[in-house]
Each structure stands twice: as C-alpha cells, then as structure tokens.
Design a protein that fits this description.
CATH architecture of the largest domain: Alpha Horseshoe
Strand content: under 5%
Helix content: over 70%
Radius of gyration: 22 Å
Shape: elongated
Order of helices and strands: HHHHHHHHHHHH
Largest sheet: none
Number of domains: 2
Mean pLDDT: 92
CATH superfamily of the largest domain: Ankyrin repeat-containing domain
Number of helices: 12
CATH topology of the largest domain: Serine Threonine Protein Phosphatase 5, Tetratricopeptide repeat
Distance between the termini: 88 Å
Low-confidence stretches: none
Number of strands: 0
Length: about 190
Amino acid sequence: MNKMENARLLGEAARDGNIEEIERLLPIVTSMDHRTYALQWAAEEGQIRSLRALLPFSDPKVNSSWALHCAAKNGHTQCVELLIPVSEPKTSKALMQAVKNNNMKCVTLLIPVSDPQLDNSAVLQIAALENLNDMMDILFDVCDAQAALTALQNDFMKPAACERLQEKINQRQNKLLHRNIEEQTHEYKSRKI
C-alpha cells in the first residue's frame, strides 16, 4: 500500500474507533499532517478512544485547533474536555460552533478558556440570530451585549435578531433595577427596626 492509502485507512480507523488498526498504522503513517487529520476525524465523530490513541502522535493546534472545533460543533463533550488543555481555544472558533449548534455543555466548557467577546461578541450575535434564548442567557454575562447589538444593527438584514437581543438587554436591566429596589427596601426596613 502507498502512503496516501495508509493515511486514508488511519483516518477511517480513527473515525470508526478502531484502536487496533490505529496502532497498526501509526508506525507506517509518519506524516504529522496525516496523523493530525485522523485526530480531527476522531474528534468530529466523538471517538474518544481514538482521540486518546492519536493525541501523542499528532498536533491538535493545527488549523486553529480544528479538532476542538469539530468536537464542539458536534457536541462531543468528552472530546472537548480532552482537547482543551492541548489546543488553543482562544483562537479557535470552537465556542462559536458550539453556540451555533446549541451544544450547551460544550459552551459551558469553552467559555472559561475562550474569548466570548471576540468579533463584537459574535457568539451572542449567533445566539440571537438562531433564537437560542437559553444560550443568550448564559452568554449575556460574558459578552458585550451592546457591541453585539450594534453589530447586528449594522447588518440591516437581521432585524429579528436585533429585537431579540434588545429584549434580553431590557429584561436584564429590569431585573437589576428590581434587585436594587428590593435591596434598598430591605435596607430601609432594617434601619427602621
């Protein structure tokens, strides 16, 4: 068999979770690119055992941590957990993909290691565009809602997303206002006693 055929077989073994075949092919497939491609395929399919077998022999940071991106996009939380420490989540679009595909667990894993305010809080814009209310609630505390709203307003083709985001901003402001009133009322009552 030639090199390309072996690389294809390694990718298929990674995708299918065939550890024995991976172990057989790793000494033959010496190209880091081909091994990393197999890693990405394993991440995309959620093959955690394949991922563990391939990680020591590949580079998960290649193509802006594409393996992490693939795992997050498809909601493979175990793969995301395994890849975060060896990837570059701040420069990856993994958080964006997890939001777009409404993968809440992956989003909560990625928020602390990503930059949710990147590109005018694009992840919040995506949540508004896709009408993902629970996702917007999670992202609201870590994103710049006003920057996201302004970016959406600058794109005249997205009025519904602007309305959704503006409604969330208003709800948040009302909630804070009510909390302040309650705290002031409580403080006033405690001083009277």
